[in-house]
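Q: A reviewer asked whether we had any structural model of the full assembly, not just the individual parts. We don't, so I'm hoping you can provide one. Inputs are below.
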Amino acid sequence: MGVRVSRGTMMSVLQIHRSEKDILQSRAAEIQREIQQGERKIFSEVLDLSSGDLHGGGIKPITFVRQVLAACSYPALLEDQSLPSDVRQRAEDLLRECAGGSVGSYSESSGMAKVRECVCEFISRRDGGVSSSPDNIFISTGSQTALMKLLTVLIRPEHSCRTGVLVPEPGYATFRLALQAQQAAVIPYQLCEDQGWTLQIQELRRALQSATHICTPAAIYICNPGNPTGHVQSRTSIEEVIRFAAEEKLFILADEVYQDCVFADEADFVSYKKVLSEMESPISSTVELASFHSASKGFMGECGLRGGYVELVNVDPAVQRYIRTLFSTRSCPPVPGQIAIQLMVDPPKPGDPSFPAFTEEVQSIRDVVCRNVRLIQEVCRELPGVRCQPLKAGFFVYPRLQIPPKAIKWAKEHQMKADMLYCMRLLEEEGLHVRPGCEYGQAEDTYHIRLFVGTRADTMEAALRRLKTFHTRFLEDFS
Amino acid sequence: MQQKMSENGAIPRQGKVLTVDTMNANVKKVDYAVRGPIVQRAVQIEKELKEGVKKPFDEVIKANIGDAHAMGQRPITFFRQVMALCTYPQLLDDNKFPEDAKNRARRILQSCGGNSIGAYTTSQGIDCVRQDVAKYIERRDGGIPSDPDNIYLTTGASDGIVTILKLLTAGEGLTRTGVMISIPQYPLYSASIAELGAVQINYYLNEEKCWSLDISELQRSLQAARKHCNPRVLCIINPGNPTGQVQSRQCIEDVIQFAAKENLFLMADEVYQDNVYAKGCEFHSFKKVLFEMGPEYSKKVELASFHSTSKCYMGECGFRGGYMEVINMDADVKAQLTKLVSVRLCPPAPGQALMDLVVNPPQPGEPSHQTFMQERTAVLSALAEKAKLTEQILNTVPGISCNPVQGAMYSFPRITLPERAISEAKAKGQAPDMFYCMKLLEETGICLVPGSGFGQREGTYHFRMTILPPTDKLKLMLNKLKDFHQRFTQQYS
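A: Here is a predicted structure for the entire assembly that you could use as a starting point for your response.
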């Protein structure tokens, strides 16, 4: 394991190198500061399409959500007649679930009972009646925390042969970091770009085979809808993966945080749990599944509140008891985040005073996102050497770039990937911040960029103008 | 190792992937008594009461957990006003809110992406909050500089504590990191050490001397530990949990000298820094003492100190606000720390905002100052009164002996148990103080945490009880406990 044991050292497994994301993020912040200090730039601000943050992108929070949260934080507002009656009622109901009637109290470690019950009702509705139990729900500080707790239980650090987890490429970079921090082995499986980023079982088999003698695979991580790909898995594909997991004895980690971000009409999200429940015995009752959701995405976009949950399916009860204890050591998830989850799964209904405004706000967010996606795809079609897979869901567009050989060579000479070169120049010359495909893992000699779609319409228009200008110039410079 | 792949469409293997045999063995050693089996039973009893089951009491008193609001303590008005303004900025136009609250909210919102607390913050925490934390530390510590870059906002202090422990845990076998913790201790430490597979090194606090810390005991424990692990960390909770002792300045200096000499990373858990009640006791921050000891120590000793919004006079546990300040950390290690915290993306923004208010409360002259001071003083003086009351009443019970509750939120009295009770407990496979606490719960509805959950000297028994219930209820509770103890002693004599 190569551990240096001397003063001031620690675990060797985390790579110290600055990731592309870190480099771009700090340069973007630097440039923003230079602009604020009056240094002349062609652009008056950095446009940030790098991270999946709706509010950061200028989209407003949902009024109902914030009114309820405010009334919960400051119960004097329960007497405020200017707040709709359903807001005040909901806040009252939620405060009744808090010890001492305060959101400042600890809750149960797995989250307030009422929130878990509402989550179960949501899951059941979503899955056409498949039952869900509050005992299998753990509210967490964002879905990442729950994912990391599951990893803690799955990964056996004391074993000489590391535990392996199958991870998609392209895939969410922070998850790989989490695996490294937990001393797990990453077993990448390539998503098939030409087929619209589908998951191919042959590729899963190949990946698993490649892990022979290197590590002990224990789990497969899937992000559906995908990040950065936006791919929505078909029911058939999900079934195939479940069968594969059953055959190969893998625990399924199904990251479904983008389930509410589906905008293509023909792409229906179906949950892993639903598909599993409809398969034959013994698969339906033995394949272990953890499914994650969050209030950070969808129309809520409440990333900062850190509200997430995991539903455990078919997990051994004795193991689940240990998982419960693990959650208990951190006291409880943040109560504002728990409230956000409750509001997400139990929004205003027809007839409620807040329903019209709520519906309008959600619709307008969906509209702006759909419009943004359309605009990006148009631009991608216009620009030479840019190819975009049809986008079904999620928060990002992930076009492939044909980068001129001269640029590839230049990048290599300067120790960076060509898409990182593209992103760095885009940031410096046009003040547009996006992420390079090398962050997410990609096939050799392919290059991509990831653009966030959840920004205000005017931001997106300005960003795309800058992208067009830059792309043309970039191709010229390296022709 | 790699299992052979089955033929296509073949029957899947029997049994589960994740069983008690295939799971991470470390997780099986994790215990957290504060929310352990006794609390689970208390929750069950509450359900039974709701369903109308007859009991010798009509409510469960949860004196097991340091949750002030749950026991009826009111939140600080100013804090909740600012939180409401940050959450729903429309209220900035509402003249029912004072101007100073609005200014705080505006400042916080300006530092948030899209001016919303719903945006991700940087993983180290909102810049302006970290700056305010640094200023608070400087004010508190008589001007000793604090660099915002050394401040990490965290999800409660627990998050910071576990992160540092994770960072420092390395090695294998004889070189495995050893972590020195006080006995008794707050079981987050023992739980995290178990989870991380680090080595727990116990040093005993001196019950006879009001739970003080003896350097000779630190020395003994370190020497013994060196034989089987690599001791690298020394954890101190000051004011103490569960014991409530407030370390003297001399003691803190001695500990710093010890850490310097023995090359130990100091973790100073100071979440109860405003909870000091006893006359003659004063909170001295480890950082302040370290820097007042001069460059020989202040440039060398590695220190992480932790604070939280959950305790003191705020009691805002549910917001999960906290911070840690790291001093003299090796640059490479600090880079790793920054990377490690990025894995969980960011701490909850409401908790960060709340932390900002704790370190930047209303100042004299500001509209909210008077009310703020009144509320703060009321909470702290009530706690001081209850600390004294608890000590007094418990010491009137034959068989119970309680050290002065100098600070924090708990009493940790020693209880004498009759031999018969001890053997009956052991026959049941229960720790004797758990046996006692379970009986107490069943007969009186009072939920405490047995001393075995915190660690104690062999052959001694304790329980931890919070001083948080309102004074009248606290008196009632203490008297019920007194009656119970006498009954119990008689029953098993």
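A: Points you may want to mention in the reply: Chain B has a mean pLDDT of 95. The longest strand of chain B covers residues 230-237.
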